[in-house]
Structures are given as C-alpha cells and as structure tokens.
Amino acid sequence: MSNIFDVVVVGGGASGLMFSSLLKDKKAALIEHNNKLGAKILISGGGKCNITNEFINEKYFLGDSSFIKSVLRSFDQNVTLRYFHQKGLKTIKIKNNQYFCENSAKDFLDILVNECKKHTILLGEELLDVSKVGDIFYVKTSKRELNAKNVVVSSGGLSYSSVGASDIGYKIASKFGHKIVKTAPALVGLTLQKEQFFFKELSGISCDVSIKVGERICKGSLLFAHKGVSGPAVLDTSLYWEKGEINIDFLPNTKLEDFRNSNKNISSVLPISKRLATAFLSHLDLDDKKVASLSKSEFEKLKNIKNYRFAPAGTFGYNKAEVTKGGVDTSELNPKSMMSIKCQGLYFIGEILDVTGQLGGYNIQWALSSAFVAANSINKE
Ligand SMILES: Cc1cc2nc3c(=O)[nH]c(=O)nc-3n(C[C@H](O)[C@H](O)[C@H](O)COP(=O)(O)OP(=O)(O)OC[C@H]3O[C@@H](n4cnc5c(N)ncnc54)[C@H](O)[C@@H]3O)c2cc1C
Q: Is the pLDDT score of 1 beyond 60?
C-alpha cells in the first residue's frame, strides 16, 4: 500500500460513505476505527434513519446561512430522494415532512457501503495524525502510514462516543490553522435546577408544548425524564439554548380565559394529564378548586402554566446528544468544494463543521449534501 492515494477519507459515517460512493475513477482509502461502517446511521431515527425532510432550508440550521444554503442547493432533498430511490431504497413520509427508511436504516447503509466497495476500506484502524509535505499528505493510522493527494475529514462530532465519536477532526483542523467554533451537545435533553425537581415525579409523561428560547419557538412534544426534560420540542430547544431562561407553554393550544367561568376543578378542565396538572398546582401553591372560584391573583398564578420560565442547569451531555453544535468554522472553507482555504487538498464534510440542523432529517441531509459538493469537486480534478 505504498502508492499515493488520490484521496484518504477519515470516518465511515454518513458523510464519509456518501463522499466515497460518489467518487469516480479515483484511488481512495476510507479509514474507520470501528470494526463496521455507519454505526451511527444504524441507530439514527430509532433504527429507521430520517434521511431528509420535505422542507430543507437553511433556516432550520445553526451556522452561516449563506454557506449552508449554497451547499444544500447543490444536492437538495429532491435529488437525495431520487438518488436513493433509484438505488432501491424505500422511504416513508412521517408527519407530512420527514422521510424515513420504510424498513430499516440498514437499507440506506447497505446502498452506501455497496457503492464504496470499489475503494480500500480500512476498518478497526484509528486515524492518529495528518501532516503535509509539499503536495503530499502523510496520514498516520494505528496500523500504517498512507500518502495522499487529498484528505477528506468526515470524522463527525463528539456525540455518542459509544458509536465511535472522537475529536480527531478538530485536532486536524486546528493543526492546519482552522478556527473551531466552540462545541456543545445539541438535540439533547435539558437538566433541571432544584426548583424544577418536581418534574422528576412526572417521569414518563409527555405533553405538547411550545418553548421560547431566545427569538426561536420550538413546538412539539416534551417528555419528563428522570434526569430532566427531553422529547422533540426540548431537543430542538437545546440547539438554540446556551444558558439562561427558556419559557414553556404547557397549554399551547388553549386559552385559559375560555375556562375562567367553569364550575369544574382546574385539573379536570385543563387538557393535560391529571398528574401533570396536580403537580403544577402544588408547585404553584394553588388548591385544585373550581376555576370560577379562583381569585384574580390566583388566576394570574395559574397563567404560569402557559409561561413557565426556567433556566436549565445544563444538558444530558455528549453521550446522549444526537449531534454536536459548533465545529470547524465554515468561513475558512470554500462552499463550492468544501476545501480548506488554508490548505490545498484538505476537505471537511458532515457534522464536524459548524453546521447543525434541527430534528427531522436535516443532519443526515447536511452530511449527504456536503459530501456531494466535495466529491463533485475532487471528481473534476
Ligand atoms: C441516536 C441518534 C439518532 C439520530 N437520528 C438522526 C436522524 O434520524 N436523522 C438525521 O438527520 N440525523 C440523525 N442523527 C444525527 C446524524 O446521525 C449525524 O449528524 C450524522 O450521521 C453525521 O454524519 P457524519 O458522517 O458527519 O459523522 P458520523 O456519522 O459521526 O461519522 C464519523 C465516523 O468517523 C469515525 N471516526 C471518528 N474518529 C475516528 C478516528 N480517529 N479514526 C477513524 N475513524 C474515526 C467514527 O467512528 C464514525 O464512524 C442522529 C444521531 C444520533 C446519535
């Protein structure tokens, strides 16, 4: 294996596999330190991998919107679906906009892996270092040294170390002079302050909420968990939350005034579970009595349920986070090629970048679109 590779790809996840599968007439090696490819794909979307969304748009991502827009436009959701349908993938649309694999994420992974068989695949081999002398990269793994004209870093973020996450991509980027935007766990549950410890008794209950975080509103389901709060609305909130308060409306489709004259008890009229209503009333120090009998100030107190302010203590951490926000600063990459503007032949794709999407197939789509842009550029060489 002493010959020079056209490309060495670091990481066999969604972005590295898509990139490798799109390479034409190039001699490439794909390094993956797990003993199998695409481990994260298999656990994505509850085993069915939500590969894209009908409404792919830069506004659903954190990061430089013009960079993101340019990359997504090159390989959008329609092209993605056409590409994989042509290769035999069956998808199913859920909630009117999210495309999942109809049978299993393995079907999606198998297509990618099949297309990569033409390359040298080095499994169970950890990338340790990359250096460059003249026009050639020296790629050091736990088992050998490879020489390459181009290196594509697709090693992902820090989330879910159980399926292979590492910081190697950030180390390589820093070594070649790239700025790293501060990373943090995202699409993750939020932990509680002492004042919200009563939430813990509600573990297992879920309800529809609307959460205000900064200028953003995240809607969907909230799940009370033992460690804090989780569920789709909270995961999206974590993308935009840094520190400070969030406001939760536990009755997003209800006007409390509509019940003002009701002769029924509060916990009977509120369209939430009785356990949740009772816990809230006790937290607000209100008796569960007829709504009509509440004094003006008691009714005002009740309104807290529609504007519950709380400052999360933190997040459930990287090992529970679906993605890592922050990462390699995109201002130092060319959006037409994903190549570093600091080092000819060095590319970054996928989650390693400072681009993070909401729940709903946005992150896999980003992995695929950024991989396409890099492959398209290298194919033209
Ligand atoms: C539980 C879960 C569910 C998710 N569900 C969805 C979903 O349904 N839809 C969606 O859009 N997104 C989902 N995501 C997010 C999505 O899976 C990721 O954003 C996407 O897979 C990132 O792809 P990537 O190729 O950039 O990185 P990864 O998939 O993380 O791939 C990086 C690869 O690099 C390898 N690697 C790391 N360091 C080294 C090293 N030193 N040497 C060699 N190899 C190395 C890793 O083992 C890994 O295989 C989910 C994430 C999780 C954790």
A: no
Q: What are the boundaries of each domain within the chain?
A: 4-185+319-379, 190-315
Q: 52 phi and psi, to 5 degrees?
A: -165, -175
Say how far apart CA 204 and CA 226 lie, in whole Å: 8
Q: Closest residue (by CA) to atom 21 of ligand 1?
A: 14
pLDDT the model gives residue 197 = 87
- CATH of region 4-185+319-379: 3.50.50.60
Sign, CA torsion 193/195/200/205: negative
Question: 271: CA distance to ligand 1 center in Å?
Answer: 39
Give 286 Cα–ligand 1 centroid separation in angstroms: 47
Residue nearest to atom 5 of ligand 1 (CA): 44
Q: Encoding tokens for residue 352?
A: 């390693």
Instruction: Count CB neighbours of 78 within 10 A.
Output: 11
Instruction: Indicate which residue's Cα is closest to atom 31 of ligand 1.
Output: 13
Task: List, in sequence order, the alpha helices (H) in the chain.
Answer: 14-22, 39-43, 65-74, 77-86, 105-116, 168-175, 232-240, 266-269, 274-283, 296-302, 362-379
Query: Which of the following CATH numbers is that of domain 190-315: 3.40.50.1390, 2.40.340.10, 2.30.30.30, 2.40.30.10?
Result: 2.40.30.10
pLDDT, tens only, 288-312: 999 999 999 999 999 999 999 999 9
3-state secondary structure of 128: strand
362 residue type, one letter: Y
Rounded Cα–Cα distance for residues 4 and 20 (Å): 17
Instruction: For ligand 1, say whether the CB of 350 is within 6 Å of any of its atoms.
Output: yes
Q: What's the mean pLDDT when you consider all of the chain? A: 96
Please give the distance, rounded to the nearest whole angstrom, from the Cα atom of residue 204 to the centre of ligand 1: 28
C-beta 206 within 6 A of ligand 1:
no
Structure tokens at 259: 């019940």
